[in-house]
Design a protein that fits this description.
Length: 375
């Protein structure tokens, strides 16, 4: 007797490795867990804060290269908040129009877009980190196009101009600058906002006990030093649509005893979580001069510590250059997202290589004209 032919049941496809699998924050869908870390380009040669064709090319190439989320370079909420005169901003409508051109293009390539809202504080008005300015260091004098920086106190960052200490009234204006920039970010087509509370810029200056020596409501104990960060977060979250994610970038440590450290970061992170922050992007350092040994994955342990302490996803960054290493970070539970920076300057299509090396062939990582070049 001949047995009837039975149709074979298809074997379910194995899920893709987490690095190259889709992910979500609130209602924002990302095609993978790879973020482009913010990196200053110093390419606004007209010094008006308006992003240029360079920024379209830089971000657009990485959108075409398969990144899940692109985070802009530090984008100043006010002219005096720029790190250098050649930085981008989002304090006026001309900038909004220019950003909209970029977000529209990147969306068409399948990438989600976040803007990093920033104020450089006492580290503002410095020479751009470009080869043509290699012989120049420190603050740009006003006669050369610089301006006077501000900070929590009049204590300067080593080698930079002495800042003016912000008054309480000026702090209130600054919070409103972030709120107004939030409205412009929405008009510019951004899907997410990242607040830059790291690297020794203004908010980190208020957080660090090595920098913030104020004796009023914005200094002293942890509550005082946290106040500016919490006020900005509250103002932005109130203005940002409820379905769109809010990310905060933190420096987890100053790398110096007596400074900002991981336990203080945990305390702040828990407060930020209560205010509606959806993810943390963990870096380190920048508030004061410190001896930091930067080796591959040197900041990942801080991301793991924060991830274990809060209930929001965490992104790890810091010399993560190989796809297998990035996937291992996710497999270990050290982080939920991987942000890459310098390697992305060398390889705009790093996510495409990552998918290939992890055994995934996915056409969604490539724009149509590039399908012939798939790994």
């Amino acid at each position: 007797m001949i047995s009837p032919v039975r149709a074979a049941c298809p074997t379910p496809a194995a899920p893709p490795p987490a690095l190259v699998a889709p992910a979500r924050l609130r209602t924002l869908e990302m095609r993978n867990r790879i973020w482009l870390a913010p990196m200053c380009q110093y390419m606004v040669e007209t010094r008006d804060g308006v992003p240029t064709d360079w920024h379209l090319m830089h971000l657009g190439a990485r959108a075409a290269g398969g990144f899940g989320l692109l985070i802009t370079e530090a984008t100043a909420v006010t002219p005096s908040g720029r790190i250098s005169p050649q930085d981008v901003g989002i304090w006026n409508d001309e900038q909004v129009t220019a950003w909209r051109r970029i977000t529209d293009f990147c969306h068409a390539q399948g990438a989600a877009m976040a803007v990093q809202l920033a104020h450089a504080g006492r580290k503002a008005s410095t020479w751009p980190a470009l080869p043509q300015f290699a012989s120049r260091r420190g603050s740009i004098p006003e006669f050369a196009g610089g301006w006077h920086p501000v900070g929590p106190t009049g204590e300067p960052f080593p080698g930079l101009e002495v800042p003016d200490a912000l008054t309480v009234a000026q702090i209130g204006e600054l919070v409103e600058d972030f709120a107004a920039a939030t409205d412009r970010a929405l008009a510019a087509g951004f899907d997410a906002i990242e607040l830059h509370f790291a690297h020794g810029y203004l908010v980190h200056e208020f957080l660090s006990p090595l920098v913030n020596a104020r004796t009023d409501a914005y200094g002293g104990d942890a509550a005082g030093r946290h106040r500016l960060a919490l006020e900005i977060t509250t103002a932005v979250r109130e203005r940002w649509p409820a379905d769109r994610p809010l990310i905060v970038r933190l420096s987890a440590t100053d790398w110096i005893d007596g400074g900002w450290d991981v336990q203080q970061s945990i305390a702040l992170a828990r407060e930020l979580e209560q205010l509606g922050v959806d993810a943390l992007h963990i870096s380190t350092g920048g508030a004061v001069s410190a001896d930091i040994t930067a080796v591959p994955e040197y900041q990942v342990g801080f991301a793991r510590t924060l991830r274990d302490a809060v209930d929001v996803p965490v992104a790890a960054v810091g010399i993560i250059t190989e796809p297998t290493a990035a996937q291992a970070i996710l497999d270990r539970g050290d982080a939920d997202f991987i942000a890459v920076g310098r390697v992305a300057l060398r390889e705009p299509s790093w996510p495409q290589r990552a998918a290939h090396e992890l055994g995934v062939r996915d056409a969604s990582f490539y724009p149509g004209p590039y399908h012939r070049g798939m790994w």
